[in-house]
Amino acid sequence: MRDLLYALIVGLALAGHAAASDPPSETVSASFPPSVVKRFESLPIQDGGRVKPIASFARFTLLRIAGSTRAKDADGASHESVEWLLRLCLFPEVAAGDPVVLVEDVQAAEAVGLPHEGKKKRDRWSYAELLPALPQIIDRAHADSGIDAAQRSPIQSQTIRLAESALTVLRIGRAFDFARAHIPLQQGTRAADIFPNQAEVTVADIVVHGPALAALERELASSDEGREKGAVAALWRGATDLCADAQTLAWIPPSVSIDEDPNWKTPADLVLAARRGAVVAESHIALLRAAEEVAARRTDPVRLEIALGELHDRVLSLATARGEGATLEAEVVYQRLGLLRWSLVAFLVGFALTALAWLRPKSRALNSGKWLAAATALGLLITVIVLRCWIRGRPPVSTLYETVLFVTATGALVAFGVEWVHRTRVAIAAACLFGACGIFLANGYERLDGQDTMPSLVAVLDTNFWLSTHVTSITLGYAAGMLAALLASTYLIISLVRGPRANAAAQRGLARSVYGVTCFALCFAVVGTILGGIWANESWGRFWGWDPKENGALLICISQIALVHGRRGGFLRDAGTCMAAAFGGTIVAFSWWGVNLLGVGLHSYGFTSGVQTALWTYYGVQWGIVGLGGLAWLRDRKRRPGLEGTSNPAVRSSATEVSVAPSKARPGRARRAQPDVEEIPAALPSTSAPVANADPR
């Protein structure tokens, strides 16, 4: 049975591409002018329960298949994701040769018997190259999908992804078969009489005359007229087959309100309604006719643009009448501008200018340039977040991807504030580095996940006030905690590299910044955790259930409370505070990402090997920095023996003076003297020798 299914899949693929083919003279070029692509990119569709422009669908579909938002054709020409999708819909017989399916390891091709001469270990294959082994690919993927994701080998995971990618290309390539192909009529039958003066019909014709055809089918059900039954069955079967893969794109808005029917339709839905005897709305039939016109004009760019414009306007008109599609153009602009990419560039430029400013601290051009670049980067990132909020009509944090953007923007903004207050020339560099790393993480997660980053949310996550405030607060805590870890790591690296030659005043300022940011993080972590309990009580009927995510939030609060108490109690000085904060970054990362990958609890998003690898890499780096910072502290302590616990009051006095806050302390804010070993000067004034000419008074 399975072999028959595979043969049917391959047969449908070949038949679909053959049916879609025009004479070779018409398919010499499958490229489109920008005006045609622009018309197509804003076509409204519903995908994943959300109305979006087809540009968003194209971007994430290609990202999932090819690991990139651009595709190359067989001639090596590069195309944007929207143009690739249009090629695949209108010229599947040409686009089947485009190498877009990413194979991470050529061993996956070997495992299914695909010849791979001339292919790299990691390369992109065309659908035409994969087609001969498609049954074997599906067979192997079917077997491997029964294995738990965490237990699969890389080759097994790649085989499953390869099958999904190949079938996605097949379905999109056949999505417009209903508009291209025609179904022949058996002349001399009662079914043919329903379509007078026609030798063949389209899917739209069958939908128009669906009630009459359905009535004839019911009438013939109890008769012995085999030829008549066969003629009717052939029409329904032909229409159903041509619409089988049209279900990939739902681009037909219902003619009723959202409350009555929230789901958009596909041509297959209209055929099914017609077969049941329902009268399909004239507006929907007009959409099918418009799609047929698009397919018919595919080789004429001027007429194709007009046909696409008519299809777009008809779909948008129906969507607008339902109150949908108000932000489609904004989402198209958001996708087209790529503001996140420019923000990353500006952050990197800002970091480079900051590094140059360290070498030439008196250069006004460098100092002004670093602030301008950093502010531009942060402004672009905030613009991205605001645009996403407007497009979705929701708070800034509702998905794991959005937490990355929000944490990055908040952390960079807090670092700006630290630099503005303390003028350490380190916090501004940390802001740029934090911003760049955050955007790299966001891009990497988007590429790895390959899913729409603005998905439709379930009801419990969509409208709850306590959830919105909880997630926003806890994410602010994540941002400050990660920034404190970055600043603390900077302190420890400076101590390791420069040792006693380090600028003690600058390091003290950096340590105070770490402590202040940690206090900021603690406030939001505690508030966010409490708000999360309130939301859990409303949604699940309990305030606390020891869910892994709840435990992670509690770990953050405990670690930061311990740091604050250690600092205030004199148990932790500058170096100890920074080592604790740097280690605390791994606790934040575990609560933020790690618990989502455990496979248990209400916040489990499933095992993802790429995220797991990145997370453990971060753990290793942070723990290594903490360890090296501890070694640097021990090294500096051994270089200054005899200071801790000395009974010499002059030594104690000098040490106290060094560790006390700046001389212009505010009245009533005296600090307890807590000398830090590495802050005591290497040479202290001697008090054992008598002082000459001392005045007895």
Give a nutshell description of this structure.
The protein has helices at residues 2-20, 34-41, 54-66, 81-90, 92-95, 106-111, 127-130, 134-144, 154-173, 177-180, 190-193, 203-208, 210-220, 226-242, 267-275, 282-296, 301-321, 328-337, 339-359, 364-392, 400-422, 427-449, 459-462, 465-498, 504-540, 548-568, 574-592, 609-639, 649-659; strands at residues 44-47, 50-53, 70-72, 78-80, 99-103, 123-126, 183-184, 200-201. With 697 residues, the chain is mostly helical. The longest helix has 37 residues, at 504-540.
Number of strands: 8
Strand content: under 5%
Through-space gap between termini: 111 Å
Mean pLDDT: 83
Low-confidence stretches: 1-28, 642-697
The biggest sheet, with number of strands, parallel, antiparallel or mixed sense and barrel status, is: 2 strands, antiparallel
Task: Report the radius of gyration as a whole number of Å.
Answer: 33 Å
Order of strands across the widest beta sheet? 1-2
Shape: elongated
Q: Could you say which structural class the secondary elements and strand pairing correspond to?
A: mainly alpha
**Portion of residues within helices:** 55-70%
Number of helices: 29
